[in-house]
Write a structure and sequence with these properties.
This protein is of the alpha+beta class and 329 residues long. Helix content is 29%, strand content 20%. It has eight helices and 13 strands. It has a five-stranded mixed beta sheet with strand order 3-2-7-8-9, with no helix packed on it. It has a four-stranded mixed beta sheet with strand order 4-1-11-10, with no helix packed on it. The chain has a two-stranded antiparallel ribbon with strand order 5-6. Helix 1 runs antiparallel to helix 2. The longest helix has 21 residues, at 33-53. The radius of gyration is 24 Å and the shape is globular. The two termini are 29 Å apart.
């Protein structure tokens, strides 16, 4: 921006003690109250972090080079920054704050770095995984609202790994999407498909995030799970996953995604289901009833929790576009 077009506050003699207030002063002319508030809190916490830890220049540069490496390894099919957010617990925290759930609704969890936008739209009954080594699994689900009514016409993104724990995009010879599909709930709010039994797998650990886990003496493994994402106008966007109970990594998920309400038992298909869905009797079976929250329900709950959190911090706040900003009136 042309310096002649802005009135820059005069900076004081800069010291360890006053640098923060000086940065706040020069950022104070931001016209967007939410961006201004976010930057004010970010600068405060980053500066306090440096003062609290007595951050050295070498450590600062190590951090800069680490983040540079995270960016350099990102591609259209790999998002190392999301992976970093995941292993720090930030992804789950943000999802929980931005998409609060009332009792009995389906909880959200992490998106992960391997969702794509090229999955094919498929009808009910589709075989989404063509991995011959995977154990066949029938998945039957329903989608309802918080009043227990079926929700039809919901767009559902589904994705899982192959039997070796790799997503299709991790294979160099990938030609078409596999282990993933987009479906739609029918007039009864139901959808079903054929997949393979999920297996545990390591998150990508050949990049900067993997090196960080090694330094922290943390393993890179995730428990067996299958991803789901739900979209329909009027309903809060839901990103979630189902996790197999008693998986060896259930209580040490590298990306903090497991929630008790999302743990499921693996069943077997009985004769009645086998005939209805055209699969062999004795096949593995996953069933789940998803419950979506309306946008209005979610908005009210999010705003309520935001103001409660601000009050608990002793902050005088108001809502701006549904998000808290300082109340200066």
């Amino acid at each position: 921006m042309d310096p002649s077009q802005v009135k820059v506050p005069a900076l004081k003699d800069l010291t360890i003690d006053n640098i923060t207030e000086n940065v706040h002063a020069i950022n104070s002319q931001c016209p967007d109250p939410r961006l201004k508030y976010i930057l004010e809190r970010l600068v405060t916490h980053v500066h306090d972090f440096a003062r609290e830890t007595r951050l050295s220049h070498d450590e600062w540069m190590t951090g800069i080079l680490f983040l540079t490496g995270v960016g350099q390894i990102c591609s259209d099919v790999r998002q190392e920054f999301i992976l970093l957010s995941d292993i720090l617990g930030l992804s789950l925290l943000v999802d929980s704050i931005d998409h609060p759930k009332p009792p009995l609704s389906t909880e959200g969890t992490v998106l992960g770095p391997f969702h794509t936008h090229d999955a094919h739209f498929e009808p009910n009954g589709t075989l989404i995984s063509h991995d011959a080594q995977g154990e066949p699994c029938l998945v039957t689900c329903s989608v309802k609202d918080t009043a227990g009514q079926p929700v039809s016409g919901v767009k559902i993104d589904i994705w899982e790994t192959d039997s070796q724990g790799f997503y299709d995009v991790q294979h160099a010879d990938r030609k078409d999407p596999d282990g993933r599909a987009v479906m739609q709930s029918d007039e009864n709010g139901e959808f079903w498909f054929k997949a393979i039994v999920p297996v545990p797998y390591p998150i990508p650990h050949d990049g900067p995030v993997g090196k960080l886990l090694l330094l922290l003496k943390r393993h890179p493994y995730r428990p067996s799970h299958m991803h789901f994402m739900f979209e329909k106008e009027g309903y809060d966007h839901l990103i979630t996953a189902l996790y197999l109970r008693n998986d060896p990594y259930e209580t040490s998920d590298a990306v903090f995604g497991v929630k008790n309400s999302l743990l499921i038992d693996l069943h077997t298909v009985n004769a009645e289901r086998a005939e209805k869905y055209g699969v062999p009797e004795g096949s593995k079976l996953i069933t789940y009833d998803f419950v979506l929250v309306s946008e209005e329900e979610s908005r009210k709950l999010r705003e309520q929790k935001a103001m409660e959190a601000m009050a608990a911090q002793g902050r005088r706040m108001k809502l701006y576009k549904g998000l808290p900003v300082p109340d200066l009136d």
